[in-house]
Every structure is written in structure tokens, then in C-alpha cells.
Amino acid sequence: MNEVLGSSNTGRVMVCYTRQQVLSFLKDKMPHVDWHLIETELPPIIWRSRWEKLAAQYGLPYSRRYMQNLDSQGCGPSAY
Predict the structure, then answer these.
(1) Helix extents (H) in the chain
(2) 24, 26, 47, 62: which could form a disulfide with 80 (CB 3.0–4.6 Å)?
(3) How far, in Å, CA of 39 to CA of 22, rounded?
(4) Distance (Å) of CA 74 to CA 23, 25, 70, 78
């Protein structure tokens, strides 16, 4: 299940993942990529709402919207 740490002023649920959840997810989905290169660069807590920024900065695949869809199906980083 997603880690929910509170709600924003707009009533949205703030969802985050741990660095290890994201790395496990990426290694499982794309085992041919050496994710070790960004392992120490990612922040310890990764907010889904900031996924686009991290994707651009570190070359992470997928969009925030796709991550939301994966989470709703129980197969996003929160399942790791």
C-alpha cells in the first residue's frame, strides 16, 4: 500500500515511496538498466507528485500519471 503522509490544502492525498521501493520497482521492470548509478542520488523519500521533476533530473522512466495508474492497480513502487 502507498505511504500516505497527509493531505495537501487541495484535499489531494500526498503519496510517497521510499528510495528502496522505487529502486526495487525499477530493477524489476527494467533489469537490463544499471540503476546502481542513481541509487545514491535519489532522495530517501520520493513524493509521487514530484515524479516528473525527478524523472527529468535522473532519467527515470514513466510519467507521474502512469505511476498513479500502476499504484491503483497495486503494481507500482508501493507494492515493493
Answers:
(1) 19-29, 36-39, 51-58, 64-72
(2) 24
(3) 10
(4) 17, 12, 6, 8
Is 8 in a helix, a strand, or coil? Answer: coil
Is-contact 48 70, C-beta < 8 A?
no
Structure confidence by residue, pLDDT tens digits, 31-74: 999 999 899 999 999 999 999 999 999 999 999 999 999 999 99
Distance from C-alpha of 11 to C-alpha of 26, rounded to nearest angstrom: 29
Taking a C-beta distance cutoff of 8 angstroms, is the pair 16, 48 a contact? yes
pTM of the model: 0.81
* Per-residue pLDDT tens over the stretch 1-29: 444 444 445 556 678 999 999 999 999 99
Residue 58 and residue 22 in contact, taking contact as beta carbons nearer than 8 Å: no
